[in-house]
Design a protein that fits this description.
By secondary structure, this protein is α+β, with helices and mostly antiparallel strands. The protein has a single domain, classed as Formyl transferase, N-terminal domain (Rossmann fold). Strands 1-2-3 form a three-stranded antiparallel beta sheet, with helices on one face. The longest helix has 24 residues. The radius of gyration is 14 Å and the shape is globular. 25% of the residues are buried.
Length: 100
C-alpha cells in the first residue's frame, strides 16, 4: 500500500528526526529518551511515511527547548503545542504546492 501512495502520506513525530525515531519510539517513550540523552532541544518533525519507521524524508521541523527541570510530561506538553502549529501549517503548504 505504501508504494501506491509514495510521497503522499505524511506523519508527525514528537521529536526531531533523525534522533529518537524508529520502532517503539512514540508517546512518552520519545520524551524519556530525549531526557535520558541530555538533549537541550527537542521538537516535532513532519516527514513522509516510508516502509521504515520514521525514516522518510523530513518535510519540516519545529524545535522546542528542553529545560533543566523538564519531565516527560512537561516535555510532552511543549512538543504537543509545536505539533499543533507545525502539522496544519505543513499540510496547508503541501496542499498549495509549496514546500515549507
Amino acid at each position: 500500500m505504501l508504494n501506491a501512495y509514495d510521497g503522499r502520506i505524511i506523519n508527525i513525530h514528537p521529536a526531531l528526526l533523525s534522533r529518537h525515531g524508529g520502532p517503539g519510539m512514540y508517546g512518552q517513550r520519545v520524551h524519556e529518551a530525549v531526557l535520558a540523552c541530555g538533549d537541550t532541544i527537542s521538537g516535532a518533525s513532519v516527514h513522509y511515511v516510508t516502509a521504515n519507521y520514521d525514516e522518510g524524508p523530513v518535510i519540516a521541523q519545529q524545535q522546542v527547548p528542553v529545560l533543566p527541570d523538564d519531565t516527560p510530561d512537561t516535555l510532552t506538553a511543549l512538543v504537543l503545542r509545536a505539533d499543533h502549529i507545525l502539522l496544519p501549517a505543513t499540510a496547508q503548504a503541501l496542499a498549495l504546492g509549496h514546500a515549507p
